[in-house]
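Hi R.,

Here's the chain you asked about this morning:
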Amino acid sequence: MMTDSSSMISSRPASAHLVPVIQVNDAAVTLGGRTIWQEVALSVQAGEFLAILGPNGAGKSTLLKAILGLLPLSAGAISVFGKPARRGNAAIGYVPQRRHFEADVHVRGRSIVQLGLDGRNWGLSLPWLQPGRARATKRRVAEAIELVGATAYADRPIGELSGGEQQRLLIAQALVRRPRILALDEPLDSLDLRNQQGIAGVIRRVSRETGAAVLLVAHDINPIRSAVDRVVYVAHGQVAVGTPEEVITTETLSRLYGTPIEVLRASDGRIVVVGQSEEEEVSYHAHR
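And the predicted structure, written out as tokens:
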């Protein structure tokens, strides 16, 4: 049985009268005859920043993809803006699991961002036939690039940029359509700590400035701890929802994993999770 988020206090002021942008009711997903998770209940408000945490294979990305309408439910329901979750919702900006551009990719970063607007169009772009549209596109691309702090290098070939710089431009690509929900699947993977914290700060600022709700799949809470409002912790088919202080505790994680887990807090505020079951080593994400 999951921990109901309604019984926990969010770090953001509650607004009971607001309609959630995402509502998950008693949801379950079964893949290959195995139940990935079940009895999931979650309500997300505009402007909230939620991190989806848990061990490899627990179903973090599966939860994100179910909300995106990319995977069917075996039970329950998910609604987005009051309607059933569906594939291709233009109100959702999606950054899939990390892509890396090799050094020989000479496409400008700015062009990568523009693909978020016109990447589905067929044929050649003929801006002189629609000058008003071309100006609007240029303005939208510039706004998204500025929002993620990438203006200084947006005109360089993306293959020459660092991993953190590439990731900022991919986030800008997802933001260029001005989505109301930003969904990111492990955007911090393979980045160093400084870049992880920088990207987390960018996403937090975007959420505050645009009012977009954020769902971010991650392995480690520490680089994003100061940015997130709540966490969704997935383990062994169960889910717990609440603030990091409420969910990442010895009691809650021991219940989710079904084995003794110890959660330690270092003097600098870092969270360290220690424990081992017969099936997996829980300290994989050591929150160190």
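The first strand starts at residue 22 and ends at 31.

Let me know if you need anything else.
M.
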